């Protein structure tokens, strides 16, 4: 696979990622509320922190579900491991000496930015104390689900062709934080809310360039991180409502 085709694949995946989120969010909100009610609801969430508890609605699960299914189909669809191998071969050929530890730090950048915004009093859905709870919760949920996925995959030969682990933990952690940024800012700063995904995507790319993970492992890690945060937010709001 040529170097250009390698980049085109990632650009296409990135475009699909952002487009799916925007389309899902817009269609679900507009179909259930009029424009006036949408503005009022957004304002209400910004001021009072009220949540619509739609974190696990079907449209919100399209992207993380698709990412996890893609990774899960690796043992049964020959095209997935073939693409993994072609990309890895291309990276090894063109960047044999490339290595950086930047992903070890960048994977924490999205979630850390939430606390930085707390310090600068940026308007978000939840407050500092709630952010601490959500951060801890998402770390635990992502870690638990990731551990389960690795225990299951360790008995499947397709996931151990070159001693890599499924899914990518660094990518999962980065997208976990990116989803927190999105949930906290999507009403008050909708465009900025997607900024975390840019950093998280960079982390995934670095894991591939470091030769630490295949594409399928990175994609599955992204799905795991997004889904874990949505699940944590859903549980948090359910518990909050009962108090």
- Summed over residues and divided by their number, the pLDDT gives a mean of 83
Main sheet record: none
- What's the β-strand tally? 0
- Helical content (DSSP H or I, runs of 4+): over 70%
Overall number of structural domains: 1
- Specify the structural class: mainly alpha
Order of helices and strands: HHHHHHHHHH
Low-confidence stretches: 1-11, 16-52
Strand content: under 5%
Rg for CA atoms: 18 Å
Q: Report the span from N to C terminus.
A: 56 Å
Shape: globular
How many helical stretches? 10
Provide structural commentary.
- This protein is mainly alpha-helical.
- The protein has one domain (3-242).
- The protein has ten helices and no strands.
- Helix 7 packs across helix 10 (215-242).
- The longest helix has 30 residues, at 3-32.
- The protein is globular, with a radius of gyration of 18 Å.
- The termini are far apart.
Task: Write a compact overview of the structure shown.
The protein is mainly alpha-helical and 243 residues long. It has one domain.
Notable features of this structure?
about 240 residues, mainly alpha, 10 helices, about 0% strand, globular, disordered N terminus
Task: Spell out the blueprint of helices and strands.
Layout: H1 3-32, H2 35-48, H3 62-72, H4 79-94, H5 102-106, H6 109-119, H7 128-153, H8 169-185, H9 195-209, H10 215-242
